[in-house]
Amino acid sequence: MADTASPTSTGTGSGCHGGRETMLEAARAAGKSETLDRLLADYPRGPHDQPQSMCPAFGSLRVGLRMRRTATILSGSACCVYGLTFTAHFYGARRTVGYVPFNSESLVRGQLFEDIREAVFKIAKPEDYDAVVVINLCVPTASGVPLDLLPKQIEGVRIIGIDVPGFGVPTHAEAKDVLAGAMLKYARLEAEEGPVQRPRNHKADQPTVALIGELFPVDPIGIGAMLQPMGLALAPSLPSREWRDLYGALDCRVAAAIHPFYTATIREFIAAGRPVVGSGPIGIDGTAAWLDAIGKAANVATAKVEDAKNKTLSALRGVMAASPIKARITLSGYEGSELLVARLLVEAGAEVPYVGTACPRTEWSDPDREWLETRGVHVQYRASLEQDVAAMMEVKPDLAVGTTPLVQKAKELGIPALYFTNMVSARPLFGPAGAGALAAIVAGQTKGRERFARMVGFFENVGTGEGTGYGFKDVPKDPPGAKERYRKARLTRAKVDAPTAEV
Ligand code: SF4
């Protein structure tokens, strides 16, 4: 999207959809090698090496905006910041997003860093904030704007500077981890140095489990009820809603990587000496296995674990038996919970030949992958949109669950489709509440197959793709050779504009 006047980024369509290697090279030349190596190790690339969804930095922005007493400042091209703030407010942020603008001169001369520093000093007032987060987007990262040189704290307000470039962080899901992990590291080091603030609703008398991942609000309540017979309570979840919650999360007995892509966050739990359990309490098999794993990691007596399983599983069995799913479904998304949803669908009786996730494979989703693969499900990590669409076209499902472009494609074909983020992630997933909710939305959508077919018929002959809306008359034709001439002109210009300046 972005293409600013930075000398390190001009000419090659730099930004999310072009010039990745140029940006990487520029960032390395500008001293960001260590940061990039860390990002590449934590968030390995897959078959597609560019974000295919929204700007990844949205994940970090969202985590910051959802925290109390936390200010968030973006440093990046105005067009990127416009898109990010638009998306943030679309999702109901209701919080101010700080922005430090720049131009090619202030970037090249290092003035941008000075401007960010000044902004941070202006905003870091302890009466207003616990923390100030500064996020370098693509161009400032590629230009080496050194956020690590910002003061670590100003009058007790923590300053967290992170680089979240689209050419280093493949999905917005993983960008959540960049900020959550950076904050947890800061909090861990604080806790190692001495006493820290107690979280609200602190439960001093019970060992706790910290859930990792943004869950639908009802889910932690349901999971807390599952853990209760084992004498365990919930620690504050991560990403947290308040700085002091980070200490409470670190103080857990066990960390549960419900969303398996939080590599940096998990690293901090491990550094704090906490065992980490993967997968989640999903469906009957998954819930039993997860409660066993949590009980073992937390050293809970077997009888208590069995008690917890009996209580949860009997209710779950009842709901699942009453809400079977009879449909062939393909599933894809970029939330990181795709494998869990697929498990629930399969247990409820659905045929799921394909599940694709834009997130990478980690050991924390291995139990889900193995369970699915044993049942003939093809699991595709770092799935590209093209792979998701190809799977849907091959399978011709009764319902395709996926991202916006996949849902569009499905509707064009008359296949009932559901948008994963708005429909599946916005409902409970775990325990009896999750089983009931998923069955209800699948049933509602698959019944609509007839309606989708009518829609395709209704819109027939109105044109598709570039010819949309021209179906009743001639589709305008490109001037002969124009596209090829334009392509060559762009290539020539890219060579002329190749990066020359040092930043
Ligand atoms: S910051 Fe986001 S929107 Fe801007 S160029 Fe990078 S990936 Fe694209």
Give a nutshell description of this structure.
It is built from 21 helices and 14 strands. With 503 residues, it is α/β, with parallel strands linked by helices.
Task: Report on the architecture of this protein.
With 503 residues, the chain is of the alpha/beta class. The strands form 3 sheets. The chain has a 5-stranded mixed beta sheet with strand order 2-1-3-5-4, sandwiched between helices. It has a 5-stranded parallel beta sheet with strand order 12-11-10-13-14, sandwiched between helices. The protein has 3 domains: 20-170, Rossmann fold (3-Layer(aba) Sandwich); 208-318, Rossmann fold; 324-456, Nitrogenase molybdenum iron protein domain (Rossmann fold). It has helices at 20-29, 33-42, 57-65, 78-90, 104-108, 111-123, 138-142, 172-193, 218-227, 243-250, 263-271, 283-297, 302-322, 338-347, 366-374, 385-395, 404-412, 420-424, 431-446, 449-458, 482-496, and strands at 70-75, 98-99, 131-136, 153-154, 157-163, 208-211, 233-234, 254-256, 276-277, 328-333, 351-357, 378-380, 399-402, 417-419. Residues 1-14 and 499-503 have low confidence and may be disordered. α8 (172-193) crosses α10. The protein starts with 19 loop residues before the first helix and ends in a 7-residue tail after the last helix. It is built from 21 helices and 14 strands. The radius of gyration is 24 Å and the shape is flat. The chain binds iron/sulfur cluster (SF4). The site of iron/sulfur cluster has 16 residues, from α4.
